[in-house]
């Protein structure tokens, strides 16, 4: 009996592994079809300037309704990274987000910046920069209306290539931000080498900001660091007025989070802009 136990445990694990593999393969096939059928939707979460008290832009967040089930991008984006599906998917997201930006432009909202998440594998693809330029040119919008959010994961790899790619994008005119700042493993030295505009403070530090003094110390330090480097600071995941008050006291420029608005489908976002009396020229 004592010998049987580890064996049955092993069988249990392989079954589970097989199940997981099957689930992933199915998800992969479903995602292929979703990309093909354009069964994906972009949501946009408004970003708010604390001092100026106005909306300055929005982050593009993908949503996938797979046979009636909402699959979180936290689950399928990493999968799409592994399978390479992120290349086609990423191109589609870029184009759709740029087209939405041009729609905003046509409605007179000319100062809003549309931020787009870029995965490491997408960024490292040889055609990436071309696809960014193409999407912006096709949509006939200024490059400065688009912000690319990259994570520190992009940087791990060839630093010289990364600097070169970012400089090319910056020269073209797009805005560049570091997403989930403070949770990566890379050194801070890249901050002085990369042509960045903004740091997005990860929501892990914001979640309990009002009751956790360590989070307060970390966030205060990130804000000071960013300000000393002339970067714009935005806090992610702000849900409570107490968090907003603290962030304002610490000198944070912008916030994004449920406190202000959830991510919204395009038509709701347009309604939200109207309701909040955003100037359209
Ligand atoms: P992220 O880029 O850091 O996006 C912020 C996440 O926080 C989003 O989750 C957003 O819905 C959520 N969020 C915003 N405000 C709040 C808040 O107040 N409280 C809480 N608890 N959450 C808030 P989402 O949409 O599930 O996306 C998860 C991650 O998936 C993103 O993290 C990003 O890494 C990735 N992702 C989403 N859309 C795309 C995309 O179009 N392309 C790529 N490459 N990645 C994407
Ligand atoms: Mg992001
Ligand atoms: Mg983030
Ligand atoms: Mg994230």
Automatic annotation (TrEMBL):
Superkingdom in the source lineage: Bacteria
Domain EAL: 24-277
Annotated protein name in UniProt: Uncharacterized protein
Covered range of the whole protein: 479 to 759 of 759
């Amino acid at each position: 009996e004592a010998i049987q136990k580890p064996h049955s445990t092993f069988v249990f694990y392989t079954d589970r592994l097989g199940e997981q593999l099957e689930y992933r393969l199915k998800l992969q096939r479903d995602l292929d079809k979703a990309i093909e059928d354009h069964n994906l939707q972009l949501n946009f979460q408004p970003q708010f300037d604390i001092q100026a008290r106005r909306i300055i832009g929005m982050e593009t967040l993908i949503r996938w309704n797979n046979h009636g089930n909402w699959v979180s991008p936290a689950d399928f984006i990493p999968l799409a990274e592994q399978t390479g599906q992120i290349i086609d998917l990423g191109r589609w997201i870029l184009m759709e987000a740029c087209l939405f930006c041009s729609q905003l432009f046509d409605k007179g909202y000319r100062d809003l910046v549309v931020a787009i998440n870029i995965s490491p594998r997408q960024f490292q693809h040889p055609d990436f920069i071309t696809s960014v330029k193409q999407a912006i040119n096709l949509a006939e919008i200024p490059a400065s209306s688009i912000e690319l959010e990259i994570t520190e994961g992009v940087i791990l790899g060839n630093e010289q290539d990364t600097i070169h790619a970012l400089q090319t994008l910056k020269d073209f005119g797009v805005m560049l931000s570091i997403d989930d700042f403070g949770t990566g493993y890379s050194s801070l030295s890249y901050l002085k080498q990369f042509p960045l505009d903004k740091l997005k403070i990860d929501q892990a530090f914001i979640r309990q900001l009002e009751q956790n003094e360590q989070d307060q110390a970390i966030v205060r330090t990130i804000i000071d660091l960013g300000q000393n480097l002339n970067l714009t600071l935005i806090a992610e995941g702000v849900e409570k007025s107490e968090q907003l008050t603290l962030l304002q006291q610490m000198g944070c420029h912008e916030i994004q989070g449920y406190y202000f608005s959830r991510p919204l489908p395009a038509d709701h976002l347009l309604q939200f802009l109207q309701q909040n009396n955003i100037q359209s020229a």
